Structures are given as C-alpha cells and as structure tokens.
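**User:** Once you have settled down, spend some time on the protein underneath, comparing sequence with structure tokens, and judge whether sequence predicts the tokens.
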Amino acid sequence: MKKIGLIAGNRNFPLLFSSQAKLKQPSLEIIAVAVKGETQKKLSKFVDKIFWVDAGKVGTALEIFLREKVEKIVLVGQISPYRIFKDRKHWDELMRKIFKNISDFRPHSVFSEIIREFEFQGLSFINSITFLEDCLVKEGVNNNVKVDSSLEEEITKILPLARRIVDLDIGQTIVFKDKAVVAVEALEGTDNTIKRAYKICGPGFLVVKLAKKNQDLRFDVPVIGFKTIKLLKNLGAKALIGEKNKTLILDKEKVLSVSEKVNIPLIGV
C-alpha cells in the first residue's frame, strides 16, 4: 500500500492513526478529507494532502479520492450525528441517496451504506486500527492498579449482561453500580453517558466499553481517551473495562499513568 485516503473525524484518533502509519510505513502517502467543525486543524502536519469538506458532502469526498487515485480508505474519528443532521439542507446528492437507501439512521446503517457506495466506485475501506496494535487495550489489568477479588467477582457477574446489551447495537458504553445497569450509551457519547449515570447513582460505578459481535472495525472502533479518564477521576469511578484487542486508547501513556495515579484500574476483557 503506497497511498491511503483518510476520512478524518474529531478528537485525536486521526492524529494518532496518521503518526503511527508514517512511523511504521514512512513512504506511505496520506490523502486526508477533513470535516469542517470536527477535524483538528493540526492534522495537516501529519498528512501529505488535506481537503476540507462539510459533514454532508460525501460525494465531494469520493470525488477527491478518485481524483487523487486513492484505492484504500480508512475512516477514523467520530463525526457528530448532530452536525450531520444540522447541515441536512447542505447535503450533496450522494448523501441524500445514502439516507434514502437506508431503513434507519443508526450509525452502523449510515456508514455501511457509505462504504457500499465507495466500493461501487472501486475503493475499499481498511480496518481503522491498522498500524495501531500497540495502542489497543490488552487482556487483564493494563495499568498497575491492584484489583481485589470483590471487583473481579463483580466484573464476572456483569459482563454477560453487558455483552448482550452491546449486541443490541444501542451503544458501546454501559455503566453499572452494584451489578445493576445504570446507563446505556445512546447518541450522546461516552462522556455524557457517564455524567448521566453519575447523576443517578453517584460515585463507585463501573464503566464497561465493549465491541459487539462481528464489530465492523472499518468505522466502529471503541475508543478510550484522556478526557474520559479525567471524568472518571472527578466522578469517583471504580474501574474502566474495555474490549481487549479492539478498544483503542488515545494518548495511551498519559491514560495509563493518570488512571494508575487515581487508582482506577483499566481492565481488558
């Protein structure tokens, strides 16, 4: 692979992917399509070319990749559903076609249809965690926080239920306290789910972030970042559990160091 197209969403995921890709394959040319109002401007320092488009301009992104002779594409970073729907009147023809062809507005349905349209033009999407194996949650305790037998027993009890909930394709994050479900992530995202749970149950909760069966890692990667760790510290979380080998840790060294200092175990299951 000599060239790759990058559809870049928000936060640090696009920066991490680009820097790791260049580190592991220095000759790789990265052509980025960045979303106005979502993608960090400093991404331009990590890629060879960058083009800025509005959230609803899927056809424009496709035209850019075809013009740049890109064959492989990676989708990294979230694009806010709010921004997509807010700009509905500015959608291009391809975006309108995509939403006409799907039966529901779940992110899985939307991005699966986008991929189908790109593949029809001869492009293919690669796994979003390509080049990022070192940044994934590993099995067991990832930091140096001691996990006692009562916490181990609690995790064993809640995991089967958590997996069943995640497989319903509602959201990747579930918050538990005393082995009871307090909150399930919807479109509001991980951090807002945690805040909602705290209002209900107070401190001492567990946050579980899992991948569903047959998770499509081309566009749906569970992510843990430093902002979430800070939130867990401030709200008094008991532990953070992530799907081993599928959950990405942004700013991994910082996340592990801070979570260790505040005694929040990060556990891969």
Remarks:
- The radius of gyration is 19 Å.
- Residues 143 and 256 are 6 Å apart (CA to CA).
